[in-house]
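Kindly inspect the following:
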Amino acid sequence: MVHWKIFSLLFIGYVLKAIVASSDPGSLADLAKILSQLAGGDNCVFRCPKGYKPLTNPKHKPSSDGCGSMGIKLDTSNFPGFTRCCNLHDVCYDTCNNDRAPMR
């Protein structure tokens, strides 16, 4: 659920960025701050689904590929905190459980 909330916020931010790119740059920076805070900013906290506790698989090396999914990469350079938030999500997804089925 959190995955789709973040993706939705990123997508909305990306669309709004494209719409207002030619207008006042200050308003875009303000919008980026607001969206970043809505997504948790630098303090993103992810919880494992269904109350699972994070587990460590000693053979697994957690990885992160930034913001995006299924080959689609989102440019989050104008949205402070988003990339870190996406990276934290990836690490959490890697450690919550062994099931790699998409979260619904």
